[in-house]
Amino acid sequence: MKIVNIVCSGSFNQSVNFNALLSLGPQIFQYDPEMYHGAYLIVNSKKITIYTSGKYIFVGLKNVSDIEKQFKSMKKLLKPFLEIECIQPPITQNIVITDRISESINFLEIVEKKSKFKIEYEPERFPGMIFRNLQGTCLIFRNGKILITGVKSLNDAQLIKNDILEMIK
User: Fold this and answer.
1) Cβ neighbourhood burial of 164 (10 Å; 0-12, 13-18, 19+)
2) pTM score, two decimals?
3) Which of helix, strand or coil describes residue 116?
4) Residues near 140 by beta carbon (within 8 Å), at least 6 away in sequence
5) How many domains does the chain have?
6) What is the per-residue pLDDT across 27-39, written as a single tens digit (0 to 9) for each?
7) Residue 86 pLDDT > 90
8) Is pLDDT above 80 for 64?
9) CA gap 131, 154 in Å, rounded
10) What integer pLDDT is reported at residue 135 of this predicted model?
């Protein structure tokens, strides 16, 4: 399984003064209120979206271990600008993963089985099969490639993959 994107969010538990952050310079802090109401911090070559309300969002991480690294770097950078050190650690909202489960998959055979799994297959609307369970959603393509999204952990992704492997047996 290859992680394509991790999205996390959290809060500084206080409002953020964007005018003060302008002193970080445009290589680190980017804010254009005419374009967007949020601002961007560039930390470890990744953008963190922040809002004056104190909310923040990490996007584009490719490894679960990068979450803590990004959080610590952000805290260190913003410490002089925050009134209290009460930053909520990021909570993983979504992990997007790609993988391959087979060389080819026969969608009609799966649909005919009327499996216990929740699947959608409408070839006129979408060239793949959509699989859903409590952990998340997976797009399955005939060539065996899958895209898992909506999971909050790698364990959840593995549970989806296991269900798909059981379904295509």
Assistant:
1) buried
2) 0.88
3) coil
4) 101, 105, 107, 128, 129, 130, 131, 146, 164
5) 2
6) 999 999 999 999 9
7) no
8) yes
9) 17
10) 93
Confidence check: pLDDT of 66 > 80:
yes
Domain of 137, in residue numbers: 101-168
Name the phi and psi angles at 9, rounded to 5: -140, 160
Backbone torsion region of residue 83, taken as left when φ is above 0, otherwise alpha when ψ lies between -120 and 50, otherwise beta: alpha
Where do the DSSP E strands lie in 17-169? 29-30, 39-43, 46-50, 55-61, 91-100, 118-120, 129-132, 137-140, 145-151
Question: In this structure, is residue 112 part of a structural domain?
Answer: yes
**Residues 86 and 137 grouped into a single domain:** no
pLDDT band at 104 (very low <50, low <70, confident <90, very high): confident
Q: Which helix (H) or strand (E) holds 4?
A: strand 2-11
CATH number, domain containing residue 136: 3.30.310.10
Q: Which residues pair with 57 in a beta bridge?
A: 9, 49
pLDDT of 115 over the 80 cut: no
Q: What is the pLDDT of residues 69-78, one digit of tens each?
A: 999 999 999 9
In whole angstroms, give the CA distance from residue 160 to residue 151.
9
Please give the Cα distance from 138 to 101 (Å, whole number): 12
